[in-house]
Amino acid sequence: MEAELKQVNDIYQQISGYLVTYSFQIIGALFILAIGIYAAKKVSTLVENLMIKKGIDVTLSGFVAAGIKVLFIGMIAIMALGKIGISVTPFVAAIGALSLGAGLALQGLLSNYGAGVSIIVARPFVVGDTIIVQGVSGVVKEVRLAYTILTNEDEIQITIPNKHIVGEIIHNSSENSLIEGVVGISYDTDPEQAIAVIKKAIMTTSGISDHKEPQVGIENFGDSSINIGMRFWANTGVLFQTRYLANLAIFRALTDNNIEIPFPQRDVHLFDKTPK
Hints:
5-stranded antiparallel sheet; 8 strands; single chain; 51% helix; SH3 type barrels; Helix Hairpins; elongated
C-alpha cells in the first residue's frame, strides 16, 4: 500500500513540476491553437468564396477549402506541441506510417476521389447533361468527389463511382436524347409526301427539342414496304412519353392522308406437277 501511495505521489510531483515549469508555455500553446483554429476557418472560407466567385465548381471549392483548413490546423498543432516541449518527430513518423497503411486500405476510395477532382476540373459533363458511360445512361443529377448520380424518367437514381467514369468513352448529349424509329409505307405511296407528313407530325409533337431539325428519309426498301427512317431529339426527362406521343401523331397523320402502312405480304405461286 505504501509503495502504491509513493508511486501516486511521484506521479503527482512530476505533473506538478511539469505544470509549474511549462505553465506559461501551456497557456501560450492553447492561445496559439485557438488563434490557429480561428484563422484556419477564416482562410478556408475566404478561399472557398474566392473560388466560387471565379466560377470554379462548388464541390471542388469546398474540397480545397476543407483541405487547406485541415493542413493549417495541423501546422498550428505541431507548433503548439513544440511550444510545450513535446517532440513532434515521433508523431510525424507515426502519421506517415498510418497514412501509408490507410492509403493502401482505401486505395479504391482515394482513386474515386482523384477521379472526382478530375471530373470537376475538366468538366466533361455538368449537372443536367445526358450522358452514356459504361452502358448506363441518364441525366446527371449530382457530381460528388467519390461518385456521380444519374437519374432517368422513372426517377431511378444510378450511382456510378467516379473511377469508372474517368478514362472511359462518354457520350454527352446535353439535356436531350436521340430517338430513332422506322415506319413502313406502301410502294404505291409517294415517298416525298410521306416524308413531309411524318416530319410535320414529329415537329408538332410536345416535348420535341427545337435545337436540331428532325431527320426523316428513306431508310431502306423492304420486301413489302418502303421503310422511312426517323431521327429526332427529345428532352431526356420525358423521353419515352415523347416517343409514344410522336408515334401516335405519325400514325394519325398517315391515316388522315390515306398513306397505307402495309402488312408483310408474300406472293405464292403454285405449280401443277400432276402428270398429264
